[in-house]
């Protein structure tokens, strides 16, 4: 997949930027190219920073100010024809490109999670007193999948409940033997951050699965699984999160040797 040069430029600069300017880049990447086409003040408000802070970003990136950056975005949008092709009915070529993107994205994602990292996560998942998983509006599906599979392999695997009251009761009983698995991708979930920080304050350890720009929770993680930024067109890459989850589950199962538990589970399932 050909990378948009402005997206590539923002992505390359992101790790070296101050936190406030990172916030502006996240808005630009989340809603590219449209976020760049509003006013500087509107962009700053979306990022939660001041207009002068937003303006400094474009000077740092080598543009002659925000107006020059907008002009570059407009020129790039005119040069690209993928959206126009799709609207005009060229769905077959669009789907073919999406399949290629997804295939390449999966390869990149799996390469980003080497075997030693899988075993490090597996050791935590196998040895924890309890494992709790949560995610954002879409990544919660990966968290749910992790817990459904992990609960077959070992006891004490739970999805973090949705309500504030149930979350408070969960945090109340957490300790150093417990592990939180958080899936946190742009746009990063404030609810996930609040729960994780409360859990960390009780001593629970964190496995964080996040994107290339890293969740604000990255500094809290005992193990960080960073996935590259790849997607099939406008669709968030849930398949990548599930694929990584599968790897972590396989590594965990190898540590637990759960054949007896799985056989007993099958018997109970048939009898109920």
Detailed description of the structure:
With 272 residues, the chain is α/β, with parallel strands linked by helices. The chain has helices at residues 5-13, 19-30, 40-47, 51-60, 66-79, 82-87, 91-111, 115-127, 140-153, 164-172, 190-201, 238-256, 259-271, and strands at residues 131-135, 157-159, 179-184, 205-210, 223-226. It folds into two domains: 5-80, Winged helix-like DNA-binding domain superfamily/Winged helix DNA-binding domain (Arc Repressor Mutant, subunit A); 104-271, 3-Layer(aba) Sandwich (Rossmann fold). The protein has a five-stranded parallel β-sheet, sandwiched between helices. Helix 9 (140-153) links the parallel strand 1 (131-135) and strand 2. Helix 2 crosses helix 3, helix 7 runs parallel beside helix 12 (238-256) and helix 8 packs across helix 12 (238-256). The longest helix is centred in the middle third of the chain and has 21 residues, at 91-111. The protein is elongated and about 70 Å long. The mean pLDDT is 87.
What's the gist of this structure?
The protein contains 13 helices and 5 strands. By secondary structure, it is of the alpha/beta class.
What kind of sheet is the major sheet?
5 strands, parallel
Alpha plus pi helix count: 13
Lateral strand order in the biggest sheet = 2-1-3-4-5
Q: For the record, what CATH class of the largest domain applies?
A: Alpha Beta
- What structural category characterises the helix and strand content? alpha/beta
Counted up, domains total 2
Question: Roughly how much helix do the residues carry, as a percent range?
Answer: 55-70%
Proportion of beta-strand residues: 5-15%
Mean pLDDT value: 87
């Amino acid at each position: 997949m050909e990378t948009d040069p402005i997206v590539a430029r923002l992505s390359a600069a992101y790790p070296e930027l101050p936190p406030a300017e990172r916030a502006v880049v996240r808005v630009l990447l989340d809603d590219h190219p449209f976020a760049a086409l509003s006013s500087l003040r509107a962009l700053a408000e979306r990022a939660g920073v001041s207009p002068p802070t937003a303006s400094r970003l474009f000077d740092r990136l080598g543009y002659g100010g925000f107006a020059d950056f907008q002009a570059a975005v407009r020129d790039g949008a005119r040069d690209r024809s993928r959206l126009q092709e799709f609207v005009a009915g060229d769905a077959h070529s669009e789907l073919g490109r999406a399949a290629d993107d997804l295939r390449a994205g999966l390869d990149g994602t799996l390469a980003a999670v080497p075997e030693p990292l899988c075993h490090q996560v597996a050791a935590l998942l196998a040895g924890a007193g309890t494992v709790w998983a949560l995610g954002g509006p879409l990544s919660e599906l990966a968290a749910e999948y992790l817990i459904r599979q992990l609960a077959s392999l070992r006891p004490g695997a739970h999805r973090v409940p949705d309500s504030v009251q149930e979350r408070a009761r969960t945090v109340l009983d957490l300790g150093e033997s417990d592990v939180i698995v958080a899936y946190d991708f742009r746009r990063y979930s404030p609810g996930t951050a609040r729960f994780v920080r409360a859990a960390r304050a009780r001593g629970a350890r964190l496995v964080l699965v996040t994107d290339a720009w890293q969740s604000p929770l990255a500094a809290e993680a005992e193990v960080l699984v960073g996935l590259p930024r790849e997607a099939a067109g406008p669709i968030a890459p849930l398949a990548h999160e599930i694929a990584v989850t599968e790897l972590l589950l396989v590594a965990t199962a190898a540590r637990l040797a759960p054949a007896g538990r799985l056989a007993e589970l099958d018997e109970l399932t048939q009898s109920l």
